[in-house]
Amino acid sequence: MAEYNFVQHVMCSLLGSKNVDAGIHIPVTREFLETVDNNVLCQRPSWRVDAAMVNPLCDSVLLISDHSLFPRGALKKDFCISVEIKPKCGFLPLSEFIASENSIKRSVTRFKMHQALKLHQGKISEISAYDPLDLFSGSNDRVHKAIKGLFKTPQNNFRVFLNGSLILGGLGGNADATSCEVGETFENALQCVIQAVDGQRTQCFLDLISKTICSSGLLNKVLEVQKLDNADIEGAIHAYYNVISQPCVVCNKQSAEDQLSERYSSLHSILNDESMKIVRNYLIAATAKDLSMMISFRPREDGSVESPYSMVSLESTNQSFDYKVLFPFPNSFRVLE
Questions:
Q1: Which residues are paired to 26 by β-bridges?
Q2: 70 part of a folded domain
Q3: Cα gap 93→106, rounded to integer Å
Q4: Domain check: are 113 and 238 in the same one?
Q5: For the chain: N or C, fewer Cβ within 10 A?
Q6: Which residues form the domain of 323?
Q7: How many domains does the chain fold into?
């Protein structure tokens, strides 16, 4: 229930209730959870098994709708194509509490640093061509560059579904790079949705995604929420120890001559309400840095009845599409440890 309340009362108000699915709280049995656990584990790479573990002792779960589909309407033969994107953190931190030895954080994105670590650990075979700063830039050209980067190296950050079935990206794991063979199969799969000649459908689809992201403006909201973290973890951790009324472990490790010791000390002199706000904003922002975004498209026929969904036009194919953008929550709570 804690996750549900967090999404319902915090994330819905920040990102818009129509764009967030908090799920439905339902009771479950231990046998059901064990079955889910077994089904999920076989689809995970070994290094992500721990992240996928299901707690069989829970007596309830949150049921999330399948947002890769539109609700069935009068048109039974509709085709629906959906893309799931994990945008990651869209800005470089400027916090005054970042230590000089960690100054790289001011010029290199978290995503790029994590990519280097994963490559070193053998979890990926190549660095992603995607740059989150491009996706959040608001520039049409840079957003399109970001989408092309995600398509080139999907990993677990970019997946495409046709009528609910995965046609690009990894299911529960990584799809490092889109090979020529995979790209050709994907191009052929698009022919029921994108009305373009062979060899151009993929490009048109990526154009459609880019245009929708720019016109919807939802990533602007996500970026605003991410930027609630203006202290960075290096500042928030001090506020956290204020909140739990315990000696600050970080300060105990600092020498009196440390350049930031005085600045950190100032954090320990603020009111408890201010400390609570720093910690709260950090945790909310951390959730926004780790969310998924699902964009679903359905071709709109000429003369079709009025739709409750937003519309986007793809000039290169002379097509119009209904679309919906949702953030399927909940993700796990972010924690300070």
A1: 61
A2: no
A3: 6
A4: yes
A5: C
A6: 81-328
A7: 2
